[in-house]
Queue: 3 jobs
Job 1
Amino acid sequence: MRPQPEIVIPASVDMPQAVAVTADNGVQIYMLPTPDFEVVRFSFVFRAGTSVQHKPFAASAAANMLGEGSRGMSAQQIAEQLDFYGSYFDVNIDRDYAYISFCSLRKFFMPTLEVAREIILNPAFPEHEFAVYCSKRKQNLAIERRKVDMQSRELFATALFGAEHPYGISSPESLYDELTREDLVDLYNKLYTADNCFVVCSGLLDDEVMSHIKAMAEALPAGEKIDVNLPATNTTHQLRRNIDTALQSSVRVGRLLFPRTHPDFVGMQVVAAVLGGYFGSRLMQNLREEHGYTYGVMAAMVNFDKEGYLAIATQVAREVREDVLREIYFEIERLRTELVPEDELQMVKNVMVGEILRILDGPFGIADVTIENIMCGMDNEATERSVEQINAITPEQVRDLAAKYLRREDLIEVVVG
C-alpha cells in the first residue's frame, strides 16, 4: 500500500492584484485577467442594500426585479437570450450592497452584454410582474417566519442592533402591500448610479471586452454618493420567544464586535473556528458527539460594512435547550481560561487556510474575494495578510482574545421555540 501523501498547508498565498481603471464618470473598474479561461464574468456592485432603502422591502424588490423586463426586452426575452447562449445572470443583496453579475463564454460575450445593458441601464419594473413578485415574496416570507430558525435569526439581529436599527429591523410581511412600483423606480434612480457603483471583471479580458464593459459603466447616470450614517446600536442581552407548538428550539449566542477592518477580526475568526467553525470543533464534539443534542452547530464572525459580530447557532429539542446553553457557555469559558493544544490549533489553521485556498481556486472565487476586499477599503494583499495572521496566531493569543471579547456578561442569548 502506498503511503498517504503528506498534507502541506502553505504559510502564505499569492493572490493576484486587481488592475483598476476609472471610467469617465468615476466608476472604478477592477480587472482580474485569467487568459487560460474562455469565460468572462463581470459584476456591477451598487451601494443599494437594505440599510439604505427608504421603504421596507424596496431594496430587495428593486434588485430582484431588474431582470423582470426592461424598456427593450421582456422578462421572457431576457431569460431566453441568456439561456440560448448558456450565460447566467445572478442577483444578490445584503444589508449594504446589491450585486449584479453576468457570466458567459468569451465568444458569447456580446449577446450577453446586450442583456446586461438592458437589465442594469433600462429596467422597466413592469406593473404585472411587480404585483406577482410582491405576492410571492409576501407568502414565502410568511411561511419562512413560521420556522424557529428564521425567527431566531431575526430576533438575534434585533438583540444585537436594536429593533429600529437598519441592521436589526424586521419588517412585517404585510408591508409588501404598501410597496409600489414607484418606490422601486425612486430607489433605482437614487442608488443605481455611477457614484454608488464599482465593477469587478474576471476571465478572458481582452481589449474588446473591457472597452464594452467600460462603455456600459460610463452609461450609468451621475448621482449623489450615499453617505451612510447609521444610528447607535441598542443591544438587548437576552430575548426569548416561546412557541408551544414547536418541537425544536433555535438557540443563538454571540455579541456585537467589530467589522473586518479591526485588527482583532482575523484573530476572532480563529476563536470562532475553534468553537464551531468546522466539523471537529469543540461545540460539535460537545453538543453532537458527546451529548447528542443536535445534528450541527456553527460559530462564525459576520462582517457588515459598519459593524461585525460573532454568532453561535444551533437547533435542538426544546427540552434540552437549557442544557445546550450551559454547554455553550462551558466551552466559551474553557477557551477563555485554558490554552488550546498546539495540535488542535494547527488543525483549525489548516481548515481555515484550506477553505481560503478552496475559494481562491478559480477566477470567479478570486473575483468574489476581491469584491469583499474592495468593500472593506482594502486591496488583495488583505487576503494574504489574513493567511499570515492565521498561521502566526498562538494558543496564548487565542486565549487572550477569548478572555477579552467573550465575557459572559457581554454575550447575547436568543432562544426561540
Job 2
Amino acid sequence: MNLECEKELNIAKKAAKEAGKYLINNKNSLNKELSSTSRDIKLQADFEAEKIIKDIIQRESDIPILAEETGMSTDNSFKNLWIVDPLDGTANYARDIPFCCVSIALVSDFKPIIGVIYDFNNDNLYEGSINTHAYLNNEKIEVSTTKRSDDGLLITGLPNDTDYSDEALINMIRNFQNWRKVRMIGSAAMASAYVASGKADLYMESKSYLWDVAAGAAIVNAAGGKAIISNQNDKFQVDVLFSNSSLKI
C-alpha cells in the first residue's frame, strides 16, 4: 500500500484541529455567504478552512487531494488520495447549530484507510484506521450492540439532490416506522462518528458526497461496525449504509 498510516493519521489530525480551531475562533468574519442554491449555501468558512487543510497536507504529504470546494489537485493517475471536507454541516455552522465538523480521510483505491473527524464545537476528535482501533480524544470507542431496529436509533438526512416527491418521502416515512427513534442532524460526518461511538445504530443516506462520509467510513470500520459506500457517480455522490454490524436490517 506504501502508506505510513501513523504518519498520515497525524497529518490528518493536525490539519483537522488547525482548521477547526480557526473556524471557532474566527466565526464572525467567516460566517459570510458567498453563494447559495435552493438547498445549499457556501460560506467564506468553507474555503478558508479548506486552504488551511490543503496547505498542511501538501507540506507534509505528496498524496493528491480531492477537496469539496476546489476539487482534484491532480490530473494524473493515483492509487492513494486524501479526501477533504473542510466544514461538514455548513448550514448548521451558519445558524449556530452545533452539529458541524472538519472531516479528512485517506483512501487507497477508494477504500477508506484513515479517517479523522473533528467536532470543533465540543473539541472532540474522532479517529480510526485500518491499522488501529477507533478513538474519541484518545479513548477507545466501539459501535453499539443493538440488534433490532425497533430498539434502535437511525440517523439519516436530506442531501442537496434529495427526491422530495410524495412517493419518495412516503417511502422514507415507512422506513422510519421501523425504528424506535430517528434523527436528522445535518452533518453526515457527525452521523458517522455517532455510529462509531455507539450513540446511534445506523446511518443511512442516498446521494451524499464522498467527502462527507469517507472519514466516517474508516472510523466506523475501526470501531467494529460495517461501512458500505456504493453507487458512486461522476459527481462523487454515493449511497451510504453505516451500521453497528449487529443490526438485522
Job 3
Amino acid sequence: MTKTTSQTLLKITGLQVAYGGIKAVKGVDLHVNQGELVTLIGSNGAGKTTTMKAITGSLPMADGDIEYLGKSIKGKGAWDLVREGLAMVPEGRGVFARMTITENLQMGAYIRNDKVEIAADMEKMFSIFPRLRERKDQLAGTMSGGEQQMLAMGRALMSRPKVLLLDEPSMGLSPIMVDKIFEVVRDVSAQGVTILLVEQNASRALAIADRGYVMESGAVTMNGDAKALLNDPRVRAAYLGE
C-alpha cells in the first residue's frame, strides 16, 4: 500500500541531458514525496544514472528543471546539496579507500558539528551494519564490494539526509549481500527517510518501493504504484524474463 504522503521533496520536470549532440535523457518528469521510497528501473543504458548525476549537479542539464524542497537546484553542486539534505550513494560506491571505516563514516558527518549526536549516529550505523563495527579500523579499500556498499550507505546516512539517492546499490554483489542491501534500504525507508532508488534489479526494487518509474532509451515509458508495475505483463516480460 502506498504511504500517506504530503510535501513533494524532489520534482524533475522536462529533464534533458546530452552527451555531445546525443540526448541521453529526453524530457523526464518524476517526483518523490516526503516519506516515499520511489524506484527508477530500466535496462543498462536507459539513462537512469545520467538522471541521478543531473540531480546532483555532476552533469549539466540541456533543458528542464529540478526542484528540491520547492526551489530550483539547477546549477548547484553536490557539496551544496548535501548541506541542504540531499545525499547520494553513487554507482561504484566511491568510498575513501585509504581511510578506515570509522573515518569514512565521520566524513559523512562533515557538515555537522553536534558531536554527541554524531557519536550516537555512528553507533546507529554500527547497529545497522554489524560488519562495519567488526572492521571499524580496517581500511575501506581492503573491504569486499558488499562491505563497501554498506559503508557508502552508512556514510550518506551520517549526513542525516532529507532525501537519499541510491544508484545501483546491488550491482556486482553476491546474492546474500543483495538480500542484505535491500533489507537495509527497506528499513531505512521505514524509519522515514525519503529515498529515490535507481536499480537494474527490477523485481527486488519494485517489491520494496511505493511507486516506480520505468525508463527506456532516455524516457519514462511507465509509472505508477510499484506493486501494480511489478504485476504488469509488459514489465514482467521486459525485466523479469517472462
